[in-house]
Design brief:
- The protein has 109 residues and is mostly helical.
- Helix content is 57%, strand content 4%.
- The chain has one domain: Winged helix-like DNA-binding domain superfamily/Winged helix DNA-binding domain (Arc Repressor Mutant, subunit A, Orthogonal Bundle), CATH 1.10.10.10.
- It has 6 helices and 2 strands; from the N terminus they run αααααββα.
- Strands 1-2 form a two-stranded antiparallel sheet.
Amino acid sequence: MQNKKDKNLNFSKVSVNDLILFCIHSVIANSEQCSFERLVKECFTLFPDTLKFTRYPIWPDSRKLDRPLRALRNEKLIIGDPKTYFILTETGEEKAAVVAKSLRQGKLL
């Protein structure tokens, strides 16, 4: 059985952008709107080491999502902003499915 430390090492090979795509996909798959707050919760719940504050690791640092979200919008993989909610474009959905498959094959989720 893999321990938590081993899992975190595997996550380090996945880009923050891909983790965000996966989390948006995950929220939407649960029939929820993906607001910024809901996205922060999903990312921090699934990938806490990626989103935690350095000095306060039990709290999420939502600033770590800012640039990746802008990059995902620029790449036309997502639509939306922190004031509304996020959705995946068709291309974003395809990429999120590939990320989900790779995470599950790695037995990370």
